């Protein structure tokens, strides 16, 4: 099984200042720890991954809040390509409704050109959830589902052939050809995160493989993965493996790992609640996001299970404990790759690097030996 490391670039300690400013209160103009310091620190995670035998470096896309501050994952990965030698690069995800899909295809194609024949670009895409982000980028969130669907068609066609003809509501494209000309079909490098039934239905129908980013509980994420497997089989496709993102904290003793994992994973959960405004009531009123309305109601009633969910479910502990838990999850989800988040919340970079180096030494070799089968739901056909 392949193993990745993910760059998040969170500035968690700035949330109180950020939200106070958003409410119109007088605050300091800048965070106590600068955003640029976060970026310069976290780049070293990519260097460690490249040096210690990881297969992939991943990064994410978000805007305007301290949640994560990577505004253009393909630009970021182009820099990472220049400071690494052998590792593949991947996005989790490019949020398609925020971009012209032609430009996304161009950026993927250009990065693939730079990487050459021995390294891969894996393009994970998704639909996005954050209200602040849609508003700040001037995109109507009620159009997200239709924009996503059209963008996926355009992007897949361009990655497959380097050409595109498309007539949709949001995009009209005629006789388009990419330059530099692609020298291979990149559509197999396209993966998609799906948090709603509508998105899962789209990607299963079009045989796009699933990228599981559990911003909800692992149990709910597994149910979503099973829905994909069922719909994928009903569409006539053979079973396929998934890619899975997991949070981790590794230490020599369980007590040390527990202290770090509990603090920083709970902080991460808190940052997700705040960024996505999950304690509000707006998502159920937006076309294409109605299913999130019930989730917001449940969280307003009791958010504690969500706040502790990452700590309760994800692989942390001694190397042996992390190997065991990761193997369990990889088998359940039918993964061909798991990417780990090593730095999150207010975790100092020194702690993240210590955890990651122990992981690389004592966990990574064992995970590389794991073999899995695709998730198959009985009677799916």
Folded structure, characterized:
The chain is built from 14 helices and twelve strands. It has 381 residues and is of the alpha/beta class. The chain has one domain (2-268, 315-368): TIM Barrel (Alpha-Beta Barrel). The strands form three sheets. An eight-stranded parallel barrel has the order 1-2-3-4-7-8-9-12, surrounded by eight helices. β5 (163-167) and β6 (172-177) form a beta hairpin. α2 packs parallel to α14 (349-368). The longest helix has 22 residues, at 254-275.
Key structural traits:
381 residues, alpha/beta, TIM Barrel, 8-stranded parallel beta barrel, two-stranded antiparallel ribbon, 12 strands, 47% helix
Give the tally of β-strands.
12
What general form does the structure show? Answer: globular
Average of the residue pLDDT scores: 96
**Annotated CATH homologous superfamily:** Luciferase-like domain
- Class from helix and strand fractions: alpha/beta
Count of runs of 4 or more consecutive helical residues = 14
Strand order of the largest sheet: 1-2-3-4-7-8-9-12
Structurally, the number of domains stands at 1
CATH structural fold name: TIM Barrel
Beta-strand fraction estimate:
15-25%
């Amino acid at each position: 099984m392949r193993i990745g490391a993910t760059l998040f670039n969170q500035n968690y300690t700035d949330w109180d200042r950020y939200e106070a400013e958003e409410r119109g209160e007088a605050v300091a103009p800048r965070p106590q720890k600068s955003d640029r310091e976060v970026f310069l620190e976290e780049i070293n995670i990519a260097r460690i991954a490249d040096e210690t035998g990881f297969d992939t470096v991943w990064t994410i896309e978000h805007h305007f809040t301290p949640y994560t501050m990577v505004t253009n994952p393909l630009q970021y990965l182009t820099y990472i390509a220049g400071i690494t030698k052998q590792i593949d690069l991947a996005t989790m995800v490019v949020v398609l409704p925020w971009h012209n899909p032609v430009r996304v295809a161009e950026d993927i194609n250009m990065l693939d050109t730079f990487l050459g024949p021995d390294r891969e670009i894996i393009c994970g895409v998704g639909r996005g959830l954050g209200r602040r982000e849609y508003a700040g980028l001037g995109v109507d969130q009620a159009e997200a589902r239709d924009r996503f669907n059209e963008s996926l068609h355009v992007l897949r066609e361009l990655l497959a052939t380097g050409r595109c003809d498309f007539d949709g509501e949001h995009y009209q494209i005629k006789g388009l050809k990419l330059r530099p000309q692609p020298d291979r079909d990149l559509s197999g490098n396209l993966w998609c995160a799906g948090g709603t039934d509508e998105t899962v239905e789209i990607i299963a129908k079009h045989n796009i493989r699933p990228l599981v980013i559990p911003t909800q509980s692992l149990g709910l994420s597994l149910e979503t993965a099973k829905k994909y497997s069922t719909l994928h089989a009903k569409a006539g496709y053979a079973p396929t493996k998934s890619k899975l993102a997991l949070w981790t904290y590794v230490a020599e003793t369980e007590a040390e790992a527990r202290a770090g994992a509990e603090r920083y994973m709970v902080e991460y959960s808190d940052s997700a609640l705040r960024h996505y405004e999950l304690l509000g009531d707006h998502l159920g009123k937006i076309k294409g996001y109605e299913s999130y309305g019930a989730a917001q109601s449940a969280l307003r009633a009791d958010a504690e299970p969500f706040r502790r969910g990452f700590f309760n479910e994800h692989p942390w502990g001694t190397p042996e404990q992390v190997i065991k838990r990761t193997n369990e999850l990889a088998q359940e989800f039918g993964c061909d790759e798991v990417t780990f988040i090593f730095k999150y919340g207010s975790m100092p970079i020194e702690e993240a690097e210590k955890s990651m180096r122990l992981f690389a030494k004592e966990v990574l070799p064992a995970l590389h030996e794991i073999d899995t089968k695709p998730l198959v739901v009985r009677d799916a056909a």
